[in-house]
Amino acid sequence: MRCLRLALIALLLLASLPGCASGGSPWVELRGQRFSVEVADDGPERNRGLMFRDQLADGTGMLFLHDIEERQAYWMKNTRIPLDIFYFDSQRRLVSVSRGVPSCSLGDRCPPYPSSGPALYVLELNAGEASRLGVAKGDELVFGPGIAERGKP
Q1: Residue 124: which residues within 8 A CB-CB, separation 6 or more?
Q2: Does residue 3 fall inside a structural domain?
């Protein structure tokens, strides 16, 4: 009886820890480095992105899931954090990266940062991560559980 009670207490404690009951927050891996990500998978979320934020915690980012694989162009409208923007194709292979993209407060006059080829997934991380990781065209983005690939049931 005592063991059962201890087991129940242990389960309750584990379930109360952030992320344990739900399997944790979404994550991706790039070149063996894991990043917790917020997922933007619809138009309003993709449009808002990381606007109006003053910081992005180390080891975190935002993953954008698009509906169609095509050339993507991102801009930094109302984005206060310098970023690296990674573009991946439908096979989750790196197509191109825009490194050290500066913040922009020019509204609709902020310049676009286009992918060099068709992309389906876009990952935004703090500026400098691309260099730190040593990314190269063709690197694979690994999805953690719960991130739905586009175009697959």
Answers
A1: 49, 50, 61, 62, 64, 74, 83, 84, 85, 86
A2: no
